[in-house]
Write a structure and sequence with these properties.
Length: 92
């Protein structure tokens, strides 16, 4: 089954977030955004059951895919949001 989400551009599916022989963690993190569209790296770490560096890499992958955006410009205690999911779910 292919999951697709329209986020301000082309459809994003499983193949967009996973690589051959790659981790399924970016997809798991993307799916968790529907219940928690705002998160920090420690929250991503908890959601994924992963190390801090692994959670950070997966958050960065979602940023590169334009699924997450960093809130503010802080280099410490970064917060990320999926604004389009946030708007759709009505958590404003």
């Amino acid at each position: 089954m292919l999951y697709t989400v329209t986020l301000g551009g082309p459809l994003i599916g499983r193949s967009h977030l996973t690589r051959p022989c790659g981790s399924a963690l970016p997809l798991r993190l993307a799916e968790s955004l529907f219940t928690q569209p705002v998160l920090t790296i420690p929250e991503a770490q908890r959601l994924l059951g992963a190390t801090y560096p692994s959670a950070q890499r997966n958050v960065e992958e979602l940023v590169k895919a334009d699924i997450l955006q960093q809130v503010g410009e802080s280099s410490y205690g970064k917060t990320f949001v999926s604004t389009e999911i946030f708007q759709v779910t009505g958590d404003s």
